[in-house]
Amino acid sequence: MCNCMVRKTLCVVLLGFIFGGQAGCGTGLFQFKKQVPVKEVNSIATKTESKAEKPPKKDWFILLQDKEMSKISTNMSMILAQKVDKHVSVYRKNLIQPTSIPIFSWNEQFSIYESIFVPPCIAISPSGRECIYSTSTQFLLRDMQTDATTVLAEVCDIDEGFLEGYTDSSKIQGWQYYYSDFHKQPIIGVYQPRYPKWSFDGRYFSVSIPIFREGAGEYVFDRDAMKEIHLPDYNIYLEGGGSGIHWSSNTHQFVVASSQTGWSEREFVLVDMNSIEQYMNLIETMELNLRDPYVAKMSPDNTKIAFLGTLNNYPSSDTHLLFEVDISTSQVQHIHEYQELDFTAYSFFYSQDGNSIYFTQNHGNSMTLYQYNRETRMNSIVATFLDIQPDTTLFLSDAYWHKELLFLTFYLQTEPPEYPSIEDREFYTHIIALDSSHEKVMYQSGWMQGIASILRVE
Fold first, then answer.
1. Reduced to 3 states, what is the DSSP secondary structure of residue 58?
2. Does residue 4 sit within a domain?
């Protein structure tokens, strides 16, 4: 029987970066006809003025087709993780011919109905040699060539006295983390480790750790040294619904942001693994009346950070706004005001050259993709994605750059009006590849059952 303790912390672990799919250099995406000006946030913001853009009346409309379609002529494949109910399958999918090769599979703790829109808990290292993933009972490091696994953490017994008075203890788990001097005692959580990510070269990896009654914390691991790394004299507390750390695409830096919860304070921190004692608290450096920061992502040149947040002095403190902050000057630029917060708001991303930020606005069963030009400070409409099925909601889950192609992963949630229960909804994934040079749709996967994510394109 383990005597489990609860700790709030940021920790560090090794492996590599993949989930964001940022790589290489490139130009802006597409040519645009409609532009919308963006107004700047003053260094001390008392009010951010911005109007949400309307969906385009013309231009590029893309229908998300039911069947697979490919115009890719060169040999290319992607490794996918697809989750149906609790079962996750990893397989290689050929993008020229409709063939798939299974790699391995496992069961996660929660079904997609209990953990909506959380991608399968797996990330492949940049070299493709290893992966980290979570099953219902273990957090594992796997050699993709030999299939050998190393247990990094696993479920253990819980001291029943700790859960006294808790009405729903059936889903509470104790997790013992190994290769750690800081986490010698088990941690109690409400779900398995999730949102695994690698640094750009596979030296480090991170994962979001659930902490019972405290939200979540970040675990970072040094793969070369095979040990967890703890940020000295600092705790980072993340709300359970957060998407965790976002690594730089070419350095050992990462940024992490989280809103205030009932158990933890808001956090917005930039860390360089080469000098972890000198982390930067961005809440203190920005002259912005920030109420809560949410997800944050670094530009490819590591000079800017785009982030989602709310302001105390905005007409509504619940209005979510997309910003970009200059790391060296702390100047903040307002990019977009979301009409309402949904899963899609977390999926903004940078262009490969870092000159643009892309974001989406949800319109039910359609979605508009925008490009923010950092030089002109204008928002331009790229395309509108359409699904013709009634009673559905479309979400952008992830963006993955591969050479000249931009892969977008959409989730579709059906909402039959006569079935209000979440268990009566259905979930599907659609992956589309766009040619950024010629404004063409090069690939559509068709609607796949469950939720899926791209682990690698090669």
1. coil
2. no
Count of domains for the chain: 1
Closest C-alpha among 39, 29, 45 to residue 377:
39
Q: Is residue 289 assigned to a domain?
A: yes
Which helix or strand (DSSP H or E) is residue 282 part of? Answer: helix 282-285
Would you call 345 helix, strand, or coil by DSSP?
Answer: helix
Please report the beta strands in 113-203, taking only residues with DSSP state E, as ranges in sequence order: 122-124, 130-134, 138-143, 149-156, 173-177, 187-189, 194-198
The answer to whether 149 touches 163, Cβ cutoff 8 Å, is no
Tokens of 284: 């203190």
With tokens 């609790």, the residue in question is 86
Predicted TM-score of the model (pTM)? 0.83
Instruction: List, for residues 69-108, the tens digit of each pLDDT value.
Output: 999 999 999 999 999 999 999 999 999 988 999 999 999 9
Domain CATH for 436: 2.120.10.30
**How is residue 439 written in tokens?**
């404004």
Query: Do the domain assignments include residue 2?
Result: no
Domain contains 6: no
Counting other chains too, the contacts that 372-378 makes at CB distance below 8 Å and 24 or more residues apart are: 372/38, 372/335, 372/336, 373/28, 374/304, 374/324, 376/35, 377/37, 377/38, 377/40, 377/333, 378/35, 378/36, 378/37, 378/38
> Half-sphere exposure of 397 toward its Cβ, with a 13 Å CA cutoff?
26
Domain range for 269: 11-457
For residue 132, give the nearest of 77, 197, 58 by alpha carbon. Answer: 197
Stretch 19-30: mean pLDDT = 36
Tokens 């149906």 map to which residue?
A: 84
Task: Give tens-digit pLDDT for 116-170.
Answer: 678 999 999 999 999 999 999 999 999 999 999 999 999 988 766 655 555 555 5
For every residue of 158-169, DSSP letters joined together read: --GGGGTT-S--
